Amino acid sequence: MIKPRTSLDNEWKLISYIEDLSNEIFYEIFDYLDGFDLFKAFLNLNVRFQCLQNRLINVISSTRQRILAIFSYEKWMTSSFYALLTIDSSFHRLESLFLVGLNSYRLISLLTSLTTLYNLSSLTIVIDEDILDLTETYRMLCSLPTLKYFKLSFETEEMYSSLAIVTNDHFSNLKYLLRNHSCTFIGLTSILSCTPQLCFLNCMILNEPSDSIKEYVKIALSNLTSIKIGKCYLLFDEFEIFIQNVCAELKVLHINMYSDIVYLNGSRWEQSIQQNMPHLFKFEFQYHEIVEDNFEFTPPHILMDQFVSSFWIKKQWMIEIPIDILD
Q1: Which residues lie below 8 Å from residue 159, measured CB to CB, with a gap of 6+?
Q2: Of 119-128, 153-162, 248-257, where does mean pLDDT reach its minimum?
Q3: Side-chain half-sphere of 34: how many Cα atoms within 13 Å?
Q4: Of 23-32, 279-288, 311-320, which gets the smallest average pLDDT?
Q5: What is the pLDDT of residues 295-306, one digit of tens each?
Q6: Beta bridge partners of 70
Q7: How would residue 287 be classed by pLDDT, with cut points 50, 70 and 90?
Q8: What's the rounded Cα separation, in Å, for the pair 292 and 107?
Q9: In the list 187, 199, 217, 233, which could disulfide-bond 208, CB 3.0-4.6 Å?
């Protein structure tokens, strides 16, 4: 009597768990996953997957001379990367680098290594600790031979860092500088003196100088056409000196003011734009005023009426004045 077949033949193996898949199948699956998702899903899952990931790291290490970009969007990814690889001259084709979660030691070490990479054009760094002095960071930045774009941020949004006078034997080729941290006016002009090719500047917080700015404004950046300042605490006279001497070719200006009520003087702005920013075609301006009780118009507020002159109507620019009332 022939019995019906109730189970698979011996040469077949029933796959009940993902761990039963062969390594070859996992490598096929890994090909469909983003590197970030791959490490986040399988890192330290078990010994087997750790060995698989180490093998992938070895593959990356053996092909590092072909890597064009590295993006690490999480602190744990950066730590894992540094535990397995070191960015050095062997990454000679690297063009773009994005790292989150560096400390001061790794930052300086990284910048030292990057001086040997002659194809690196874009660098984005997010620092996970307070660094009170960025002088050495920006000095080394000027030594990166082909860098065009640099963005530096802190995990603490309004972290304040000082920057002394940066001196260097040669100029940087940097064109886009994004300083997502608080800085002083002296520190800003110091780094600008090393970047004659700069065309775009983004500064999150620009603090008021402790003394006269005239002695520090000794540069003219003919390529600087776009500026964005998240919070500007310069007096209008100081801001005007900066624009007049540093970036007379300005075409785009985004600025938020928090200090001098003179910024509400429409005629003063009109005169300054005509004399110091004749090429300006895009202008976004906010003035923030903190009110502890009820808001009342004062004589300086009346000057806002000057923003409706024929000059402003022709430009069709928008002026916004938020009023923050403290509880």
Answers
A1: 130, 181, 182
A2: 153-162
A3: 8
A4: 23-32
A5: 777 777 777 888
A6: 97
A7: confident
A8: 42
A9: 233
Q: What is the pLDDT of residues 178-201, one digit of tens each?
A: 999 888 888 888 888 889 999 999
Distances (CA, A) of 275 to 212, 262, 279, 304, 323: 22, 17, 10, 20, 30
The pTM is what? 0.79
Residues 259 and 229 sit within 8 Å (Cβ to Cβ): no
CATH, range 102-325: 3.80.10
> Rounded CA gap, 176 and 141, in Å?
13
Residue 327: both structure tokens together: 């509880």
Q: φ and ψ at 35, to 5 degrees?
A: -55, -40
Instruction: Give the chain's end-to-end CA distance (angstroms, integer).
Output: 92
C-alpha dist (Å) from residue 171 to 31, 114, 178, 199: 42, 16, 18, 14
Question: pLDDT at position 5, please?
Answer: 46
Among 210, 216, 205, 267, CA closest to 241: 216
Residue with tokens 């690889």: 85
Dist. CA 279–CA 103, nearest whole Å: 41
Query: What tokens were used for 130?
Result: 């307070």
Given this model, what pLDDT does residue 3 score? Answer: 45
Beta-strand pair 69-72/226-232? unpaired
8 A C-beta contact, residue 74 and residue 48: no
Considering only CA atoms, which of 277, 261, 265 is closest in space to residue 315? 277
Question: H/E/C letters for each residue in 193-206?
Answer: CCCCCCCEEEEEEE
Provide the 3-class DSSP secondary structure of residue 168.
coil
Q: Spell out the domain ranges in the chain.
A: 102-325
DSSP string, 17-34: SGGGS-HHHHHHHHTTS-
